[in-house]
Design brief:
Length: 317
């Protein structure tokens, strides 16, 4: 992918840090934010999905997600598998929790940054890190039931075969182990292709409303000659999308064998604004995708905590 560059892992880490004051503000305001955001979803959706929170796009800073995601395991004793790590910047945020060990993997290799992060985490945080280039569907270098906690951010929406990824996660997790994932924008929300929206609010659903020829013209007209490797342009060219709704994600989790412990929904302000400003176009979406609920076009991200249940034998012994 010659037309793409990488943002440094150190810069990415700094960009995702949130001040303590801001984290405190969100901590105290989350219940109110959830009450406010829930009004935009139908009672049917809330009853089916039973989210623990509904947030208006913000409210869960990275540091909060780390604590929320890892609370189901004894983090200081845990071996963490970070899936789809990219340049590896997210490994640092997990390393700050001082786990026993972190194993991080990605489909692509970012050797230079991985080497630097290994040294950084060892010297600054005294945490051992291992990186592997590997498809998430095949972590054969890991033994069955060898991982305490799986974690990923902005990964599941890019898995073309998410079922196989989840099966592999289930295999390597110890019974009672947990999985945290934050993923989005979902395919059916505004900018679900990580690209639509350039040129104005009227374009945020272009990936769903335009036919393939129209969409490609739109895509090429806005594609930059030098973009971040982990940008929307790259994902579109590689067609790295799962194309699932929230309900379909949840069904898949349960089908593989996971128990859904918690689900947080995040709404996209752009989706809500599009629905208000362009009601006819929004209705066109609903008419085109009759197998989706209109709420699917509003929910932009999911945060989930999943648990691998103990077997009956283990429960008895």
């Amino acid at each position: 992918m010659e037309n793409y560059y990488n943002i440094s892992w150190l810069e990415q880490d700094k960009l995702h840090q949130t001040s303590i004051l801001k984290r405190l503000f969100y901590f105290f305001s989350r219940p109110l934010l959830s009450t406010y955001a829930s009004q935009f979803l139908s009672p049917q959706t809330l009853k089916i999905l039973q989210p623990s929170l509904v947030l208006p796009g913000r409210g869960m800073p990275l540091e909060t997600r780390r604590f929320w995601g890892s609370v189901l395991c004894k983090i200081r004793e845990a071996t963490i598998l970070v899936q789809g790590t990219g340049t590896g910047w997210d490994v640092i945020s997990w390393a700050r929790l001082k786990p026993k060990k972190i194993i991080a993997t990605d489909l692509f290799e970012f050797k230079d940054s991985w080497t630097e992060i290994i040294h950084y985490c060892k010297e600054k945080l005294n945490v051992e890190i291992e990186f592997y280039q590997s498809p998430l569907e095949d972590h054969s270098f890991l033994e069955d039931e060898s991982i305490d906690f799986c974690a990923s951010d902005a990964v599941f929406e890019h898995c073309q075969d998410l079922k196989s990824v989840l099966k592999e996660s289930f295999r390597v997790l110890k019974p009672g182990g947990s999985l945290y994932a934050g993923y989005g924008p979902l395919w059916f929300s505004a900018g679900g292709d990580h690209f639509s929206g350039g040129g104005g609010l009227q374009n945020v659903f272009n990936h769903l409303l335009l036919d393939s020829e129209q969409y490609m013209k739109y895509f090429l007209s806005l594609l930059q000659t030098n973009e971040d490797f982990q940008s929307g342009g790259c994902y579109v060219e590689l067609d790295l999308f799962s194309r699932l709704s929230t309900q379909e994600y949840c069904n898949l989790f349960q089908k593989v064998g996971f128990k859904i412990k918690d689900l947080i929904l995040q709404l996209d302000p752009k989706s809500l604004a599009f629905k208000t400003k362009f009601p006819e176009n929004f209705q066109q979406l609903c008419n085109k995708y009759t197998n989706k609920h209109e709420d699917d076009f509003l929910i932009s991200s999911n945060l989930v905590r999943l648990v691998k249940p103990f077997s009956n034998y283990q429960k008895l012994h």
